[in-house]
Amino acid sequence: MRLSTAGESHGKGLVAILEGIPAGLKVDFEEIAARLAARQSGYGRGARQKIEKDNAEFLAGVRGGVTLGSPIAILIPNLDYANWEPYMAPEGCDIETKKLTKVRPGHADLAGVVKFGTDDARNILERASARETAVRVAAGTVCRTLLRTLGVEIAGYVRAAGGIRDEKEYRFEELAGRSPVLSMMDRALEREACASIDRCRAEGDSCGGIAELRVKGLKSGFGSCMTYREKLDARLAAALMSVQAVKGVEVGLGFAAAEKRGSEVHDEIYYDGSFRRKTNRAGGIEGGMSNGEEIVLRAAMKPIPTLMKGLQTAEYPSGKPVRAAAERSDVCAIAACEEVLESALAYELAAVVTERLGGDTAAELKARYGALA
Ligand code: EPS
To answer: In sequence order, what DSSP letters do the residues of 172-236 get, joined into one string?
Structure first.
């Protein structure tokens, strides 16, 4: 399976090509629309989302609502392009007016201008922007539908935002009851988090958060201990780290495991007709393979680097001390990030599953999955 994306944040649109989805899968357009809307929402989002109304247009690979087994092409037009055409048109445009030289600390701006040999960070930020994640959600939702036919479900919630953290544990089934405001489970903590985001906004600052992601129904044996490339935890961590602004990933106990003893970390095994564990501190992965328990992952999102108050920086290439550029910004995008992470996870898991089981049709894949212990 392969997913490629293209598109600039203020260009004509975003495009995805998803290869390797078997034939015969019914695409859930309603779910795609709902997840695209969820990615656009969440307390702390900025003014750009008032302009966009993301709509995934399927250009290829699907006929009558069912996949053909051919590459799936998806287009999400950028509605803001109507305002940006004079500065972004591929065929020729004004490249001076929107030039960005007050490079933002924490963004791709400075490393990008140096690497790609330009004095305009616009050429960098347009692609580095998290706008790209819209089309990853559309493609990821197709992968999620494929996983669902196998009985594999993904869910998640925001565990921390604006420095307010929920330390409680939740059952997979409870996660459907997360709040629509900031995707947190605990409403009182969510109100505190929203207040923290409000303070951030008032101070021209930004803040991050933590998302927890769970996978239920994945049988054991996906991923492999035999080569480092095949390790499921390595692949899933890379998938989550590929999402803009993600700076850390944990599996199961994660970093906390390093401070505990083995007897407090490893999940004792028992047998009651099948091999089971009473605890799941490993987060469903041992030896780089799924062990049949729920997969538990956490991802930490850093604060967005565009601060309305602007951090101190040096203009490129003059080096003159200036305040970093800021026109508008998301104060906190952890709820959007959580939605994107679920999609990134869905794609990677679908890739892992289809690599192991193959199959030209969704029915073939389902039969092969069903035959596994
Ligand atoms: C982003 C900057 C902002 C965000 C954007 C990500 O866009 P703009 O510069 O147009 O205000 O809103 O995210 C999206 C547009 C989106 O749809 O998620 C950045 O620099 O990463």
So the answer is: GGGGGG--TTTS-S-HHHHHHHHHHHHHHHHTT----EEEEEEEESPPTT-B-SSSGGG-HHHHH
Q: Write down the domain spans for the chain.
A: 2-370
From 330, 337, 339, 341, give the residue whose CB has the most ligand 1 atoms within 8 Å, as the site to mutate.
330
Q: Residue 350 pLDDT more than 90?
A: yes
For residue 46, give the ligand 1 atom closest to its CA. Answer: 12
Could you tell which of 41, 110, 129, 331 is best to mutate to test the pocket of ligand 1, judged by most ligand atoms within 8 Å of the CB? 129
CATH of domain 2-370: 3.60.150.10
- Alpha-carbon distance of 194 to 141, in angstroms, equals 28
Q: Is residue 134 lining ligand 1, measured as CB closer than 6 Å?
A: yes
129 CA to centre of ligand 1 in angstroms: 6
* Segment 293-322, tens digit of pLDDT: 999 999 999 999 999 999 999 999 999 999
User: Does residue 27 line the site of ligand 1, with CB under 6 A?
Assistant: no
Q: Which tens digits make up the pLDDT trace of 78-111?
A: 999 999 999 999 999 999 999 999 999 999 999 9
Q: Model pTM greater than 0.70?
A: yes
